[in-house]
Amino acid sequence: MADIAKLVEELSKLTVMEAAELSKALEEEWGVSAAAAVAVAGPAAGGGDGGAAEEKDEFDVILTGDGGKKIQVIKEVRAITALGLTDAKALVEGAPKAVKEGVNKAEAEEIKTKIEAAGGTVELK
């Protein structure tokens, strides 16, 4: 278990670009989306916090990358946010950026799922 905690600690130090590269490498190596693995590992990162992370009721949905499918991600961001084409394109190209802030867990997970289905990468904070 100490090895897992050490790994989580090391992963927490990654920059957004390094995390995106890691995500792509994991997807290629294992044929699965690394975002799902990170989402599962996320609560474990709290370690000593216990229920503090689970009690959080407001989340920020942060787009971290377009996954090489910029057009599909822009379309999804437009549908989620009701932004115009120019604003949605600027948001996607300026990643990491918040798509929505202060949303409940269910809505945050739904947004994350939609953007990931379009090819983008998302982080919940």
Global structural class? alpha+beta
Report the count of strand segments.
3
Unreliable stretches covering 5 or more consecutive residues:
34-38
**Tally of separate helices:** 7
- Work out the strand percent: 5-15%
| Biggest sheet layout | 3 strands, antiparallel
Average pLDDT for all residues: 79
Shape: globular
Q: What is the chain-wise order of helices and strands?
A: HHHHEHHEHE
User: Helix content range of the residues, please?
Assistant: 55-70%
Distance between the termini: 24 Å
Strand order of the largest sheet: 2-1-3
Radius of gyration: 15 Å
Structure description:
This protein has 125 residues and is of the alpha+beta class. The chain has helices at residues 2-12, 16-30, 34-45, 52-55, 70-81, 85-93, 105-118, and strands at residues 59-65, 97-103, 121-124. It is built from seven helices and three strands. It has a three-stranded antiparallel β-sheet with strand order 2-1-3, covered by helices on one side. The longest helix has 15 residues, at 16-30.
Q: What is the fold's blueprint, element by element?
A:
Elements: H1 2-12, H2 16-30, H3 34-45, H4 52-55, E1 59-65, H5 70-81, H6 85-93, E2 97-103, H7 105-118, E3 121-124
Antiparallel strand pairs: 1-2, 1-3
Summarize the structure.
The protein starts with a helix and ends with a strand.
Notable characteristics:
3 strands; single chain; alpha+beta; 125 residues
